[in-house]
Design goal:
Strand order of the largest sheet: 8-9-5-10-4-11-12-15
CATH topology of the largest domain: Rossmann fold
CATH superfamily of the largest domain: P-loop containing nucleotide triphosphate hydrolases
Shape: globular
Structural class: alpha/beta
Oligomer: single chain
Number of domains: 2
CATH class of the largest domain: Alpha Beta
Order of helices and strands: HEEHEEHEHEEEEHEHEHEEEHEHHH
Largest sheet: 8 strands, mixed
Helix content: 25-40%
CATH architecture of the largest domain: 3-Layer(aba) Sandwich
Distance between the termini: 48 Å
Number of strands: 15
Length: 337
């Protein structure tokens, strides 16, 4: 057995097939993957030692971001979307961004929910803080918790309603997306508004989106809307990297019993039916909401918790799917039924 033959835990392909760069010297192995996986190092070291039938492996994990489908110096654009509101999409988006950062990537977060921007509050940005303007032409993103962020909430007060028609909102999105000096980023996570409207079409037409993550809850109506979201991305040739089921299970803090308040297994069922991976199942937990509302999302507030690990696992999985997808490099285009 060789290290090249080791099957990646997320992709069911060997590292050799995926094009990983591998250097070996005795029990020392240096592997350069196309996705960040700092939090997976210990598990991979054990799995690799078992695979090679050796006592232990001194594993050095490196990360080389894939490029070619982003814009400017942004290598990969990932849309986090939902078919309906109220499923925890924005909370998921910010935690995924922070999880990719924790895994070793350079990450930006764009709040594309023009009508209801929330990332400013979730990142703990002062409501009165405004982005600097560079050379009178481009915005400097605001840094928070180690990532770069841009949102309409940085431009207006939290009490200002966006009473705009669709073309105005689409124009605002295009401006804050392309007129922000993002610098070098491995991933730009885009927190999409719910549904399948103007903003989604604008993003797909103006930016080469590498993939989308669909957030849903287990209820039948939410799953139906999630399926519509997947179909929308299929129509504009944006690959769906997977489904994240939110509010999957509730654990009673007093008795410890678990309850599937919104149904069980719905996300896995839809993922199987539509042929996309299930990236994870996140619990219905008060601390997720409290920490995001408090300006320090779970991945930063409680980095060693089991919930933070669920976000990091989902982030590694979606990034691995992007690496695998680079082999085909689909072209984004609009199609008719």
């Amino acid at each position: 057995m060789k290290v090249d033959d080791f099957v990646d835990p997320y992709l069911n392909q060997s590292w050799g097939e995926l094009g990983a760069r591998i250097l070996t010297s005795g029990n020392q192995v240096a592997v350069t993957l196309g996705y960040p996986a700092e939090g997976k190092k210990a598990a991979l070291s054990i799995a690799l030692a078992e695979f090679l039938n050796v006592p232990e492996i001194d594993l050095e994990l490196r990360f080389a971001a894939q490029s070619g489908r982003g814009f400017n110096h942004v290598k990969q654009v990932v849309a986090v979307a939902s078919g309906k509101g109220g499923v925890g999409k924005s909370t998921t988006a910010v935690n995924l961004a922070l999880a990719l950062d924790a895994e070793g990537a350079k990450v930006g977060l764009l709040d594309a929910d023009i009508y209801g921007p929330s990332q400013g509050m979730m990142l703990g940005v002062d409501p009165n803080k405004r982005p600097d303007v560079k050379d009178g032409k481009v915005f400097e993103p605001i840094r928070a918790h180690g990532i770069k962020a841009m949102s309409m909430s940085f431009m207006v007060t939290e009490k200002t309603p966006m009473v705009w028609r669709g073309p105005m909102a689409s124009g605002a999105l295009q401006q804050i997306l392309t007129q922000t000096d993002w610098g070098d980023l491995d991933y730009l996570i885009v927190d999409m508004p719910p549904g399948t409207g103007d903003i989604q079409l604008t993003l797909s037409q103006k930016v080469p989106v590498a993939g989308a993550v669909i957030v849903t809850t287990p209820q039948d109506i939410a799953l139906l809307d999630a399926a519509k979201g997947i179909e929308m991305f299929a129509k504009v040739d944006i690959p769906v990297l997977g489904i994240l089921e939110n509010m999957s299970v509730y654990t009673c803090p007093n008795c410890g019993e678990t309850h599937h308040l919104f149904g069980a297994g719905g996300g896995a069922r839809v993922a199987t039916e539509l042929g996309v991976p299930l990236l994870g199942e996140l619990p219905l937990a008060m601390q997720i909401r409290e920490q995001a509302d408090g300006g320090t999302p779970t991945v930063k507030a409680d980095p060693d918790s089991s919930i933070a690990e669920l976000y990091r696992e989902a982030a590694r999985h979606l990034a691995a799917r992007l690496w695998q997808g680079e082999q085909s490099k689909p072209t984004i285009r609009m199609v008719d039924d």
